[in-house]
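INFO  loader      accepted 1 record
INFO  loader      residues=176
INFO  predictor   begin
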Amino acid sequence: MELNLFPTKIYRFQSNLDTTKIIDRVHKLEENKDVHYGKDTGGLQGGGLIFQDISFMEVRDWIKKQISETFEKKFTITDVWVSIYNKGDYNKIHNHPATSPMYYDTDLWAGVFYIKVNNQGGKLLIHSPQNVTNTYGLEPEVGELILFNSNTYHSVTPNESDESRICLAFNFSLLN
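INFO  predictor   done
INFO  writer      dumping tokens
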């Protein structure tokens, strides 16, 4: 499904992947202290090498297929991390602009794949580039992939459940 908001283009894809197989692997990152709390908002983030983990191979390959078929260009995934949102955790408004000169002249995008969700918060808010107080809320589903330009301002509402919410986030660069 393609949504044009504000007009900000958002791509949404639903997989039928069994994400329960990777939940335990993500929690091992927490046990091994391979994740850390985000500044000011809570939410554990880290695990930058997770795409190299064999347990993530099916998810990684599916994500790469969706990107390839959507943009019909070569691309490189520039960074990957896992986010674990426990009760009360959220993410304040931010975007993912190019931080390295090697990506300044490329088309950068961000993506998030949902491993575990609940129905009590954790909504992805897309903010209008004209007025960031205008938002559109997306209710993520397990196995869903959402892609948007990396300059798009977004935030995540607080998780109000005792159950954690887990996602895999990444940035990628479309190549000419």
